[in-house]
Amino acid sequence: MKTLAETPAATSPAPDPKATALTRARYQRVAPFYDLMEILPERRYIPWRKRLWSMVRGAEILEVGVGTGKNMPHYPEDARVTAVDLTPGMLERAQRKARQLNLNNVELRLGDAQQLDFPGESFDTVVSTFVFCSVPDPVLGFRELKRVLKPGGRILMLEHMRSENPFLGAIMDLLNPLVVRMTGANINRRTLENIRLAGLKLEKAEDLALGGIFKLLVIKKDDING
Pairing with 208, which of 12, 135, 190, 219 sits 20 to 30 Å away (CA)? Predict the structure, then answer.
């Protein structure tokens, strides 16, 4: 495992620094007990994570929002994985996880999905799991994933989003301000629309649970828009 390196500022457009700092502070606050908070839902997530990572292809892989390292047991052995997270407290726990698993093909960095410090077309596959619910500007984040993805590459995601049911969606809108203050995660993101706005092509959206609130997504660059 390579040493932790902080990601320097990238080029414009820049994310909102206040919104980014607030998100970082919320996750820094919960980092010490984040795994405990998720112990029950993680039982459901583990098979989804395993399946998602089985779809990864290529030699250069980027995980955005590594968190405490929950995906690390599923990392491919024959690829180099670069994993970034916004929050130092989360990344410290991911470092410990990498050492426990004796991962030698992983580089961990502090980094912001909205402003990635990598050249364009650097990665064969980009992976994120339950991350874009908390990215302050999700469209900006998706545009960054698009920028660093190689031609022909894919973005693989697990995500939860606003219900397509009008009644449930309205309830999620009502509850979202409270939930995001407590956990940092938005429960009413219109993620499929954000993907389109970023100029990406949704190749697959598979409903996993709760009437499509949880989905597995496969995303490609739009060949027309680049």
Answer: 135
